[in-house]
Write a structure and sequence with these properties.
Among the domains are: 109 residues, Beta Barrel (Thrombin, subunit H); 119 residues, Thrombin, subunit H; 144 residues, Immunoglobulin-like, CATH 2.60.40. Helices cover 3% and strands 41% of the residues. The protein contains two helices and 42 strands. The strands form nine sheets. Strands 31, 32, 34, 35, 37, 39, 40 and 42 form an eight-stranded mixed sheet that branches. The protein has a five-stranded antiparallel sheet with strand order 7-11-10-9-8, with no helix packed on it.
Length: 543
Amino acid sequence: MAVVGPKGNLMLMVSGEGNKEVIDACITAALAFYPKDIFRHDPVPMSPEKNKKRIDSPLRYPGKLAIDPDGKRLFISDSNHHRIVITDLDGKFIDTIGTGRIGLADGGYDEAQFFRLQGLALHKGNLYVADAENHALRVVDTKAKTVRTLAGNGTQGRDYKGGKGGREQPISTPWDVLVEDDQVFIAMAGTHQIWSYDMKKKIAKNYSGNGSEQNLNRTDRLLAAWAQPSGLTVGNGELFVADSESSTVRAINLASGATRTIAGGENDKPRNLFAFGDTDGVGEKARMQHVLGVQWWAKENKVIVADTYNHRLKLLNPKTGEVRRWVGSGKPGLRDGNGLDAQLSEPSGFVLDPKAKRLFVADTNNHVIRVVDLESHEVGTLKLTGVPAAGEPVAPRSLRLADLPGTPTIRTEPLRLSKGKDNVLTLHLTLPAGHHFTEEAGSRWQVIADDKSPIRIDETKAAGALKENATIRIPVTLRDGANGGLVRVEAIAYFCEDDGPCQVSGVLFEVPIALAQMSGKPVGLKHTFSSQIAKFGIPIDPH
C-alpha cells in the first residue's frame, strides 16, 4: 500500500497486514503539515465494481468446488451469495445449503447461514467448509442435510497454537480445506499458517507455520512461515500449498514435516512478497501472481495451479519445479476455446471429475464454472439450469459498530415486555443544523443482541441504514425463559457540514428490559449527533 502526497510525492509504502497505525499516523501528519488549499477535491477516476456490467449467472464470485466420488454431484461455494449450490455434472440444479443470509447459524439446509465461504472438501458423506469471513470450520452432513460448526465463533481469532474445539477455538480466515488421514487440513490465511482438525479428538491446532508472513522453509514444519496460504491438495506424500501472497507453490512433506518452495518467489529473500509476474520457468525463475488454488493430477504427476491474478491455469512438475502456461490467454475475459486461446477472470479453485477426464474450474470474477477437457484442452462454460436466484443477504451485525472515543452512552427508561407479546423501540437520530449524511458512507444502526440477550429479534430488522429525519421501528420479543436484562442499540453516522468539514460520530443506547404482566409503551431512542469534532468525532476529508 502506498500513501501519495498532494504533490504526487510518495510518502509511505508498506506491505503485508497490520499497518493501520503507521498509515493512520502518516495521513494525520500530512493533513496537519500541508496547507488545506493544496489538496485536490476532484473525484478519483474510478469505476465501482457494482457499476460494471454483470454476467447473467445465478452465482456471485464462486470460490471453490468439491465433487462426490460417484460424480453425481458438484458442490459450488457461491461465496458472495453465502450459500453452497449443488448441481449434477451437467449443471442441473439439485439443492442449496444455507439461507443465503449472512450469519453463523447451524441447522438444516434451510436454516444454516454462512459468510463468504470458500474451500470445500467431501469425505464419507460429510462436506467440510472453510467459512472464511465467519472465521469458522463447518461440516455438512449431506445425508441428514444439516450443518454444524466444528471450530470458530464468528470473530477473527489471534490464536496461533490452538488445542480446543467448537466455538471455544477461535480461528482466522480459513480459505481452503482438505481431508487426509482422519484430519482436516485448513489453509489458515488469516494467521499465515496451516492448521489441522482432528476428527476423533475434535480439536483444531496449528500444523505448520510460526505466524509471520514469509516464504520461509524449515525442516521443522512449525518453524516455517507462510504468506496467506489459500489452496491445498495432496499427492505423492506431500501437501501442496498455494501460498498466495508470496506467489509461490510450496509443499510440506507429510512424513518428515520439512517444507519447500517448488516454484516462484525468492528463497534467499523470504520476506520479499513482490517476486511475482507471468513467466514460465523452473523454480525461482518461474513467475506467478497471487495463486489461489492447487489440484493434484495423479495421471500426469503434476499440480494444476490457479495463477489467479494472471487469469491462467498453469501446470507444475513438483519434481523438477518447472511451471508452464496451460489454459488462459492471460487477459481477463469470458471466452471459450482451446488452451491458451480461452479467457478466464481470476480463477480460484477447481476439482477433477472422478475419472480425471474433466476439470471443473471456479472462474471467480466471471461468476461461472468452466469445464476443461483434459485430453483436448477445450474450455467450455457449464450451463447452470434451475439454480434459484439468491435472496437478499442482509448486512451482518458487527461485534461493535460505534466503538469510537467519546461515544456517548444513553441509558433509557425500561422497556416492559410480557411473555409472547411484542413491543417496540423507536429510533430517531438527527444531525445538527446545516449538516447532511455523507452519501454512501455507510451510516448504520444495529441492535447488539447475542445468545445471552433477553430479547429475540428478526435479523432483517436488527440493523439498517440511517436516513435523515427517519423514525425506525424495532419490534422485539422477550426470549423464552428470560426475566429481564439489558439491550444495547448503537449507531454510527458519517456526516458533513454543508460545504464544510466532515466527521464520524456514534451513540450507544442501553435499554433495561423489565418483565411485566402486559407490554408497556414503546421506548423512544432519540439523539442528535454532535458537531463538536474535537470532542465526539473523528475528522475526515469531505471529498
